[in-house]
Write a structure and sequence with these properties.
The complex is a heterodimer of chains A (393) and B (369). Chain A has 393 residues and is an alpha/beta fold. Chain A has helices spanning 2-18, 61-86, 101-110, 124-129, 134-141, 173-187, 205-216, 236-239, 262-277, 307-317, 319-329, 335-358; strands at residues 36-40, 45-47, 56-60, 116-118, 193-198, 221-227, 230-231, 234-235, 254-258, 283-288, 378-381, 388-391. Chain B is of the alpha/beta class and 369 residues long. Chain B has helices spanning 2-5, 50-64, 87-91, 103-115, 134-141, 144-147, 178-182, 195-207, 220-223, 257-272, 289-299, 314-326, 349-352, 356-367; strands at residues 45-49, 69-72, 96-98, 120-123, 157-163, 188-190, 212-217, 225-229, 241-244, 249-253, 276-280, 283-285, 302-309, 335-339. Classes of the chains: A alpha/beta (393), B alpha/beta (369).
Chain lengths: 393, 369
């Protein structure tokens, strides 16, 4: 690739030399790069569907750089969260998303900002793609007032407009997602709700209740199972009678998608969104992905899987590397450009960390705020009859 | 099992002593565990912490009762709090096995196992996750004997769950839901304060012919170390224990909060000259009304303390019953020092929990009433 670029450079300079009078451009011109290319993507396994998403995906240069930027930001942010947790600046529970960035980036690329999304506790990536800044996310992790939930939620409870979190109880968010989809249908606004859950949650009863309601009433709900092969420490074979999670909806059509390829995810999510918007009812997508970290920060992640396995995925299917190689091999961007983006992101995350560690914690009055919605000031009973605290909302 | 050597702990209890404070905040535990004296009547003892005493109790059960089975999420490799380490290797994978992630399923399944005649010990990974199973526990397990006219029952069912605040658990790893279950006739709810109590009470729950819920204070899993008898022994249910005799104030609590109150009692003795009687309720339902009332008749003042929110917390039931029984003996209104009426907070935990200073303050007010 390096040679190819050098050749191109020389050629360009030759062209300039030939056409005298043309200004000699010192820096690389963007006319050098391929503006758009088509890539082959893996075919999706289908359940109760005649056709699936296309097997070729188009990618423009701008899109490619944007996906790269998104995924790299999420990656760096999660690694920074890991570091801060080990320094005990972040406490409580922290479930990291690195390795699965293609899912968040791909889904966001396929839906509109006015669509809705709800997920479980491994939510930092989605919080970012739904529009919250790295600064606010890190400040929420460290429990400061600048955090997206005012420091009261922590890692598992981050929210944004049209992003409903961030939910701690496994599987509890899926009926909520079906409900949001009902609201979309009721209001007739052509929006869809993307409801995410993991392979562990796929065995919860409430999911099947949601599938039934969504299919019965043809709700515009995209159920997405992010199958990272391990539910905490239990591999999918040991937890599920059927590991074909895309078929678990039985009467709901399903797709199995390569979740490490951002283009594959995007095309599948686009297909699913079109399916829902056309009024055909819900659809299930299983994204086959992988997480590099353990389940949470207290899990080393190697007692139930081998380091070799993690290394293999990192070297062969890392989503960020895959996108980068694709773009470089088709001459859609240069190595320097990627480096520049990396440096920018690093700085962004450093600044965010600075904010997150220096912002003050929420004031004590916040302890009792937002319990109820009330007009007159509500009094909250404290630990003994003589202490009463004020609550507002 | 190599996996057993490297277990991960979701509610890691290793940071109970004062952790290196980052940004000037300290994370000292709000209590100091006070071990009981070594029991001599049950045979040879061994140093064990809370999770080891639970393992010992389960080991005794699986050895003596051939129908006993243990199941729950991740129990096979030893459990996220190491309560079932080694049991699968010793007794086989048909007796100690994992369930998929489905609490309602776990309890419902447990009820079925119990009704059919086997001893079922179900583990819910955190008490905060017990709510999907709430319907099964309240509507099925508790009412089985009553509605079948004593033909069937699920007395063989015991449900164990880690319970209570842990310093960094926040909303969904710190709850104390005993009050929800106290409202349900047909169940027994038991909470130990230490390893010796835990083993005895758990064995009693398993032997008891009623469905029992056994909450284990997770913050004590490693912090509480005592000399626990190796042989099986039982501690009777529905009997509160008077840990310390006193004449001025009765202090009632259960679980971790007992250790807070013991410290408060010594503070009160030192600084106020007030002699406190400390009672560990142990069994929440059915609770030992007699012991508590006898004590209040003697002292005239009662303070009840728990981590759960004050409105509708179990202290309200105790308070109400005591004022009915001992109205004329009371010298001051009954005091409840409990958690605030908020969801269990993440960052505000040190302010939320009923620590020793709040209890001490309440005693002062009662004495000066």
């Amino acid at each position: 690739v390096q040679n190819f670029i050098t050749v191109m450079e020389t050629l360009f300079q030759l062209v300039v030399f030939v056409f005298q009078g043309a200004r000699v451009v010192v820096s690389r011109s963007f006319a050098d790069f391929t503006p758009q290319a088509t890539f082959d993507i893996k075919k999706c396994d289908l359940h109760r569907l005649e056709e699936g998403p296309p097997v070729k995906a188009e990618l423009t240069r701008e899109q490619g750089l944007q996906y790269y930027r998104t995924m790299q930001t999420v990656r760096r942010m999660e690694l920074k969260a890991d570091q801060l947790y080990k320094q005990k600046i972040i406490r409580g529970f922290c479930h990291l998303y690195d390795g699965q960035e293609a899912c968040a980036a791909g889904i966001e690329a396929a839906i509109n900002p006015s669509d809705h999304l709800i997920t479980a506790y491994r939510a930092h990536g989605y919080t970012y793609t739904r529009g919250v800044s790295v600064k606010e996310i890190l400040a929420e992790l460290t429990g400061r007032r600048g955090g997206v939930a005012k420091g009261k939620g922590g890692s598992m409870h981050m929210y944004a407009p049209h992003f409903y979190g961030g939910n701690g109880i496994v599987g509890a968010q899926v009926p909520l997602g079906a409900g949001i989809a009902l609201a979309c249908q009721y209001q007739g606004n052509n929006q869809v709700c993307v409801t995410l859950y993991g392979d562990g949650a796929a065995n919860q009863g409430q999911l099947f209740e949601s599938y039934n309601m969504a299919a019965l009433w043809k709700l515009p709900c995209i159920f997405i199972c992010e199958n990272n092969k391990y539910g905490m420490g239990t591999s999918v074979e040991r937890a599920a009678a059927s590991t074909d999670y895309y078929k678990r909806g039985d009467f709901i059509p399903g797709l199995r998608v390569d979740g490490m390829d951002v283009l594959c995810v995007r095309e599948a999510a686009q297909f699913a969104a079109d399916h829902c918007r056309a009024g055909k009812g819900p659809i299930i997508m299983e994204l086959q992905t992988y997480r590099y970290h353990g389940h949470s920060m207290s899990d080393p992640g190697v007692s139930y899987r081998t380091r070799e396995e993690i290394q293999e995925v990192r070297s062969k299917s890392d989503p960020i590397s895959m996108l980068k190689e694709r773009m470089l091999s088709h001459n859609m961007a240069s190595v320097e450009e990627f480096k520049e983006i990396d440096i920018e992101i690093r700085k962004q995350v450093e600044d965010a960390t600075q904010f997150a560690t220096s912002d003050p914690e929420p004031p004590l009055e916040e302890l009792c705020n937002h319990i109820f919605s009330n007009n007159p000031l509500l009094e909250v009973r404290g630990t003994n009859p003589w202490s009463k605290l004020k609550s507002v909302s | 099992m190599a996996a057993a050597a490297r277990l991960f702990l979701r509610g890691a209890n290793s940071k109970l002593s004062i952790a290196p404070g980052s940004l000037g905040t300290t994370h000292a535990a709000h209590f100091t565990f006070q071990p009981d004296p070594v029991p001599s009547q049950y045979g040879p003892t061994q140093k064990m912490n809370l999770f080891q005493s639970i393992t010992s109790a389960l080991d005794n059960t699986l050895a003596s009762d051939p129908t006993a089975v243990i199941f729950g999420e991740d129990v096979a490799f030893g459990g996220v709090f190491r309560c079932t380490v080694g049991l699968r290797d010793k007794y086989g994978k048909d007796r100690v096995f994992n369930t998929p992630l489905c609490e309602q399923g776990i309890v419902g399944f447990g009820i079925g196992v119990a009704v059919a005649g086997a001893t079922a010990i179900a583990e819910i990974q955190f008490a905060d996750y017990i709510f999907p199973a709430f319907d099964q526990i309240v509507n099925e397990a508790a009412k089985y004997r009553y509605r079948s006219g004593n033909m069937f029952d699920c007395g063989n069912l015991t449900i164990r769950a880690p319970w209570g605040c842990v310093g960094h658990g926040s909303l969904y790893h710190s709850q104390s839901p005993e009050a929800f279950f106290a409202h349900c006739p047909g169940l027994k709810v038991v909470i130990p304060r230490s390893p010796i109590q835990a083993k005895g009470l758990l064995l009693s729950c398993i032997a008891d012919k009623n469905p029992c819920i056994f909450f284990e204070p997770k913050i004590l899993y490693r912090a509480a170390v005592e000399q626990v008898p190796e042989d099986p022994y039982t501690i009777p249910l529905s009997q509160a224990e008077v840990l310390q005799e006193g004449s001025d104030v009765t202090l009632v609590a259960w679980g971790t909060q007992i250790h807070v109150l013991k410290e408060v009692a010594s503070m009160a003795q030192e600084k106020l000259g007030v002699s406190c009687e400390v009672i560990d309720l142990q069994t929440i339902l059915p609770w030992d009304i007699e012991t508590v009332c006898k004590s209040v008749v003697k002292t005239g003042r009662l303070l009840i303390s728990h981590e759960a929110p004050v409105t509708g917390g179990f202290a309200s039931e105790i308070s109400s019953t005591v004022q009915e029984e001992c109205f004329l003996n009371l010298e001051a209104p009954i005091s409840r020092v409990c958690g605030y009426d908020t969801p269990f907070p993440h960052i505000f935990e040190p302010f939320y929990i009923p620590d020793k200073w709040k209890c001490f303050e309440a005693i002062k007010k009662m004495i000066n009433y």
